[in-house]
Amino acid sequence: MDSWPIGVFASVDAGLGVAWDVISDLKLPTIQLHAPHQEKRNRESAAAFRSQLDAMNVRCTAVFGGFEDESYADIPTVVRTVGLVPESTRHSRLKEMLEIADFSSWLGCDTVALHLGFIPHDPSADGYGDIVSVTQQLCDHCGQQDQFLHLETGQETAEGLIEFIQQVGRENLKINFDPANMILYGTGEPIEALMQVGQHVRSVHCKDGTWSDQPGVTWGAEVPLGQGDVGMEKYLQALKEIGYLGPLTIEREIPQDPERQRAEIAQAIELLTDLRSKILD
Q1: What is the separation of C-alpha 219 from the centre of its chain, rounded to a whole number of angstroms?
Q2: CATH class of the domain whose range is 6-280
Q3: pLDDT one-digit tens code per residue, 231-241
Q4: Residues with Cβ < 8 Å from 62, sequence gap 6 or more?
Q5: At what angle do helices 232-241 and 190-197 cross, to 10 degrees?
């Protein structure tokens, strides 16, 4: 596959990606897929999805886990509800992620990803070791199937994420770098963060955002690619500098307005195509 193939975050029936039937219209070579609802996470559905992707000449590069009782309403709600960090739901969500890893394997995809949640900054904090342990269990299950586990950036600083990866100590634990999330959550300047975590980056999102007037307290705003504070040309230059040449996966989270979503994704494809040509040629 050529360097920096452009992709899109997609969905069968869950999550915020573009609808399944839009994939062929976009004529992109790669997707990341939000895991479908549980009743479709079986061998038969995986085989059917895989056949459809093969017919469209599209490769699924990661399957993202998510949980129905998560909420991104505001940052405090994310802290309480997202990922494997909340203790009350951790066991059931680990079970679900193991199922998602199996589904991903049947789909022929070697990468599972998720938002882990807000990891405590201090490794000596109460509960930190338990979060390390559950991540190790998920990594080990993935490893048995020659899969990688990617943690999406956003809720941690670059330093905190590096520390956590070192604490987990698994070779198949990597990063899905989302530059806009660093801005939306107020956790760090994205280009600087990318250079810090670069050796661990194995997949990326292309998404843009603007800073909140209270970073880390209230949300920033997601905006169309190229209209925010990331600086897409600098972002791609930084990706080239760290040696990342994998898929550039567009994520635009406005499923309530699918026509606008498709129009903005089309604009994003044009922007990334132009920048790719400028930077790599």
Answers
A1: 18
A2: alpha beta
A3: 999 999 999 99
A4: 32, 33, 109, 111, 112, 113, 150, 176, 203, 249
A5: 10
The percentage of residues in the chain with a pLDDT greater than 70, rounded to a whole number, is 100
Q: Please state, in angstroms and as integers, the Cα–Cα distance from residue 281 to each residue in 3, 23, 146, 225, 233, following that order.
A: 11, 27, 34, 22, 14
Predicted local distance difference test score (pLDDT) of residue 7: 97
Orientation of helix 232-241 relative to helix 258-280, angle to 10°: 50
CA distance 212 to 68: 27
Domain ranges for the chain, please list them: 6-280
> Which residues does residue 248 pair with via DSSP β-bridges, in sequence order?
6, 204
* pLDDT, tens digit, 9 for 90 and up, residues 16-27: 789 898 999 999
Question: Using CA atoms, how far apart are residues 53 and 217, in angstroms rounded to an integer?
Answer: 41
d(CA 253, CA 273): 21
Q: Which residues contact 158 (CB under 8 A, 6 or more apart)?
A: 188, 192, 193, 196, 197
DSSP assignments along 30-41, one per residue? EEEEEPPPGGG-
Per-residue buried b or exposed e for 183-222, using 16+ beta carbons within 10 Å of the residue's own CB: bbbbbbbbbebbebbbebbbbbbbbbbbebeebeeebbeb
Question: How far is it, in rounded angstroms, from Cα 274 to Cα 169?
Answer: 39
Type of residue numbered 273: T
